[in-house]
Amino acid sequence: MKRLFVLILAALMLLSLAACKKAVAPKTDDIRTENTQVSSENESQDDPAEYSMEYWEEKYPGENVCPFTIEIDGVEYNYYRVSGLDEGTMITWIETPLNWNGWHLLGDDIVNADETYKMTDDWAGEEPEQYFSSFCTVTTEPYTPPER
Fold this sequence. Notes:
Layout: H1 2-21, H2 28-36, H3 40-43, H4 53-59, E1 65-72, E2 75-82, H5 90-93, E3 104-106, E4 109-111, E5 117-119, E6 137-138, E7 140-142
């Protein structure tokens, strides 16, 4: 019974890795249209063509490029990660070139470039409850800097 369980888990792991490599990213035009419909105070970002799935696959040939989204105020923005560049957590992803629009660590929080939103606590920190997986959605909440 244990062997069967181990075989099933191994098969699921292989399928997960294969799904990551074969993930199909939305067209850049669709991303840009969606992103420009959100007001600039939420997360003014255009998703330039140079940061598409194809761009990262060309930049890191032979590596697994995995898509994920960051949800801000009900809108999901497309991002990517390369498995060999981070340790599978947000705190390590923000230091990679795939974080092209300024997510950064501020105290114990991971905040967007204009510091109006932060990733929820289950995504931040060195021991997060959530780790990356293909097509995951990273949740955020409004950020107010602490009083000094």
